Amino acid sequence: MTAPPTDPPAQHTVLGSGPAGTALAKELVRRGHSVRLVDRRADGPGLDGVQRLAADVSTAEGARAAVAGADVVYHCVNVAYHLQVEVMPRVQEAVLGAVEAEGARLVVLDTLYPYGETGGAVMTEETPWKATSRKGRMRAELDEKYLAAHREGRARVVLGRSADFVGPGVLNSTLGATVFPAALTGGEVLGFGDIGLPHSYTGIEDVATGLATLGEHPEGDGRVWHLPTAPAVSTRAIHEMIEERIGGPLKVGVLTEPRPVGPFDAQFMAEYAEMFYQHTEPQIMDSSAFEQAFGVAPTPLGATLDATLAWYGEWLAQQQ
C-alpha cells in the first residue's frame, strides 16, 4: 500500500548573516526547519543544516532570488551605520515586493529607534512613536509601511523589536568588542553615557528564539512585538557581574559624549551622535507581552554574560 503524500518541510529563509541572522539560522535548524541563509557573498563559515546563498536583497532581482520558494522570510539585514537612511528603504522595497510576489510570511528584526526619547519611561508595544532623529524617523516610516502591507492584505508581516544586542558573536554593540576583550585582558572597558542608568540589553540567543517563535506562529502577525529581554539593570551593574566572573576589578573609561573611540570611528560616531540619548536617559524595554503570549522567557542576564565571556575568550585566542 502506498504511503499518503506528505507536505514538504517549510522553507525558512534568513536574510542577513550578521550575529542575529546567524544565530537565527542555527535556531531554526535546531527546530528542524529547512534553512537558507542569504548575504551578498555567501562566503561565511559553513553551518550544519544551513544552505548559503549569495544575493543582493537591496535590488528587486536579488530579493526575488533570495526568497524564491520560501514559506517564511526573516529580514535581519543591516548595513553600515552611515548608509542606513539611504539603503534600508531600498532593502525594504525590494524584500517586501519579493515576499508579496512569493506569498511568503515576513518576520522583520526591528529596533527601539521609532520610540525616540522617552524620558526614561518603560517602553512597551503601546509606547508612542515619537522619534526625532533621522534614523529613528526612517525606522518608523519603514515600520508603518510593513504594517500597512499587512493591513492591506499584500503580505503577512510581523515585527520583532530588540534592545541593544549582547552575546556570543556580537562585536559592534556598546556591550560588545569595547567591553569583553578588555575585561579579559586587563585593558580599559568602555562605557557609554551615564552607566548608572538602567539599560536593556537583548541576548542574541533570545533574538534568535524570539524571531523563530514569530516565524512559527502566524497568529502573531500584523503587529510589533518586543523580543524576550532580561529585566534592565545599569551598565555599571553589568560591569560588576563581569568582575565577579573574571575574579577582579575592571578598568572602566566612560564616553560622556560621542567621539571616535576603539572600533567606533569618526564616521560612525558622527552618525551615532543623534542616538546618544540612549545613554543619557534610562532605556527600559518590557517584553512581557511576548513572554505571556508565547510562553518564552528571556535568558537570565548572568547566563548570557557567561556565554559571552566564553565566546570572547575563544575569539581572543584566535586573534593571536
TrEMBL record:
Q: Where is the NAD-dependent epimerase/dehydratase domain?
A: 16-221
Q: State what protein this is by name.
A: NAD-dependent epimerase/dehydratase family protein
- Provide the organism lineage as a comma list: Bacteria, Bacillati, Actinomycetota, Actinomycetes, Kitasatosporales
